[in-house]
Design goal:
Layout: E1 13-19, H1 25-38, E2 43-46, H2 49-55, H3 63-78, E3 86-89, H4 94-106, H5 113-124, E4 131-136, H6 151-168, E5 173-176, H7 181-192
Parallel strand pairs: 1-3, 1-4, 2-3, 4-5
Helix pairs in contact: 1-7, 3-4, 4-5
């Protein structure tokens, strides 16, 4: 487990909460945001772009769609004002690479040039987050209308994300979606404030 500590002079701690579908990313991120806003910290919550798209009926049709999602998610993070102390996202940009690779595998189209370009962009950004958490789903899988996977597929995604982070050399903190996970992550954030 590797924790990236905020560099001297950095004003903002960037926290990425990732995991497979139904792991609690949005709930945990919202809990952290609420906690820090109540404390009076200058915090910002960056929600996942793709959820809004799926709610509008968007259907993924290519690896290029994942590249677009990456760009939109990155843009959401990049426009956060410098005055913010803590940026929390429930959709770290790395997830786009995973889903692009997954789409290419299922479509039997691993030669798509967008994959290589997306990989290059993600590799350049491999230290983007000061704290990156990979949540493991331990509770019952919840199909909420935007999730396209089954519980078994969700578990497979978790394992493959873990492998991807290892291959890219991206430090990640592994936590279960327990009732105390917000407090556990807050302790890590507080160490870096």
């Amino acid at each position: 487990m590797k924790v990236y500590v905020k560099s001297v002079g950095d004003a903002m701690i960037k926290v990425g909460i990732c995991g497979a579908p139904s792991a609690g990313k949005s709930t945990v991120s919202a809990g952290l945001f609420y906690m820090y806003k109540r404390r009076g910290e200058r915090a910002e919550l960056v929600t996942e772009f793709i959820r809004e798209e799926l709610n509008r009926g968007f259907k993924l049709g290519s690896v290029a769609d994942q590249f677009r999602i990456y760009m939109k998610q990155k843009e959401r993070e990049d426009i956060i004002p410098d005055e913010i102390n803590i940026m929390i996202t429930d959709s770290p940009i790395y997830l786009s690479l995973y889903y692009a690779l997954d789409y290419a595998r299922r479509a039997d189209n691993q030669n798509d040039e967008n994959i290589l370009f997306l990989f290059e962009q993600i590799f350049k950004e491999r230290n983007r987050y000061d704290i990156l958490v990979l949540l493991k789903r331990t509770k019952e899988y919840v199909a909420d209308g935007t999730r396209l996977q089954t519980a078994e597929e969700s578990d497979k995604i978790y394992n493959e994300l873990l492998i991807m982070f290892g291959l890219l050399g991206i430090g990640v903190i592994l936590l279960d979606d327990s009732d105390t996970v917000v407090e556990q992550i807050a302790e890590l954030i507080d160490q870096n404030l």
